[in-house]
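Severity: low
Component: inverse-folding endpoint
Summary: output formatting inconsistent between runs
Steps to reproduce: submit the following structure tokens with default settings.
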């Protein structure tokens, strides 16, 4: 099981019919392939399109149809195009209902650090700051640990911040947390991990929700099989 795809599938379950949603780079772009078929969601890309569809098959890809990650996309019926200034006006003006965005680190109070690693070259922040402060709901998606096994969910971020206290939801391959009054609350945990094991890889402080539940990944695997 690719944890990135599981995270993207779980994030897609947070979207509702009528939502205008921006997908960031990395794991978020995978969300387009997992939106439930009974929901009409309008995906926006900051390079200037509203109405992004799922990833097209290789034989149907158009090199002029790409998202902000420069990856091929399809169009929904009624898709529209616009320049970057209008795209950022949508983001800054509160017209995006939800954004799904990746992160390098996230703190227990909902601080997000996703644009720079100290000591490494910085290509630019892109639209991350605009999205995080402009979207009505911020859904952060990430693998729980770095590629070398270091925690990403911390008491306080050590990387430069993108925004302070703006996260609403955090989804990893193991758990779903919500941020309520700047407090991190655990709502879901996959059933192949125990609460003790989760704590060992999560230095941040969190409470356990009154509605906490254990989940399995059967629904995700069934979805993957139906997609072929």
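Observed output (run 2 of 3):
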């Amino acid at each position: 099981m690719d944890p990135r795809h599981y995270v993207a599938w779980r994030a897609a379950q947070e979207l509702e019919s009528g939502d205008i949603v921006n997908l960031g780079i990395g794991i978020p772009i995978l969300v387009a392939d997992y939106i439930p078929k009974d929901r009409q969601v309008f995906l926006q890309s900051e390079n200037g399109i509203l109405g992004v569809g799922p990833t097209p098959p290789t034989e149907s890809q158009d090199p002029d149809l790409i998202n902000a990650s420069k990856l091929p996309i399809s169009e929904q019926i009624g898709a529209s195009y616009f320049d970057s200034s209008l795209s950022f006006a949508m983001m800054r003006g509160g017209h995006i209902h939800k954004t799904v965005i990746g992160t390098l680190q996230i703190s227990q109070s909902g601080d997000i650090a996703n644009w720079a690693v100290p000591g490494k070259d910085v290509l630019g922040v892109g639209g991350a700051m605009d999205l995080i402060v402009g979207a009505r709901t911020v859904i952060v998606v990430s693998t729980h640990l770095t590629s070398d096994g270091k925690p990403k969910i911390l008491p306080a971020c050590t990387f430069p911040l993108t925004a302070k206290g703006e996260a609403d939801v955090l989804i990893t391959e193991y758990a779903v947390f919500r941020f309520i009054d700047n407090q991190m609350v655990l709502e879901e945990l996959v059933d192949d991990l125990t609460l003790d094991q989760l704590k060992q890889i999560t230095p941040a402080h969190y409470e356990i929700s009154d509605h906490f539940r254990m989940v399995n990944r059967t629904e995700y695997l069934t979805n993957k099989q139906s997609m072929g």
